[in-house]
Amino acid sequence: MLILVSTACLKKIDEADQLDYNIYDREYTGDQWYVIDNAEQVTNELGQIRARLLVIIPDENVPGLEPSAIRVVVNAVGFNDTVVDFLKDPLLGYARSIDLPYEDGPFNYCINLAIYDDSNDDGINAFDDCVTISE
User: Within 13 Å, how many C-alpha atoms sit on residue 19's CB side?
Assistant: First the structure.
């Protein structure tokens, strides 16, 4: 019985050591948890020219108990701390297109994404990333 209890405690300690690699943990110390998979100029449903960035949260960056959506705070030109949902796509995983105002010619588009913490109504584990779209 003592062996069973002690091995269970060791398992919990091992899991506690991994907490700072969970994107939902305020003490997260891992790498950037999302990637910009594609960026292109598009014309949206309203006829507006936009820079569309396809952002993916790779499965290896998602905790074991996968939610149906991951809420993210987006900050960029045209997005001022906007909370959006990254829904689980059967092919891409957690993915979302983000449309930013388009600038003519080659232009560097930057976004800042943070995991939304609804209990504190703020974003955690923010990272900046940029991509260039050229015509």
Answer: 9
| Phi, psi at 105, each rounded to 5° | 75, -175
Task: Give 117: exposed, middle or buried? Use CB within 10 Å, 0-12, 13-18, 19+.
Answer: middle
What pLDDT sits at residue 134?
A: 77
Using CA atoms, how far apart are residues 42 and 25, in angstroms rounded to an integer?
35
Question: Which residue, 40, 21, 59, is CA-closest to 131?
Answer: 40
Closest C-alpha among 27, 24, 86 to residue 57: 86
Q: What is the pLDDT of residues 85-113, one digit of tens each?
A: 999 988 889 999 999 999 887 899 999 99
Q: Is the separation of the CB atoms in 84 and 108 below 8 Å?
A: no
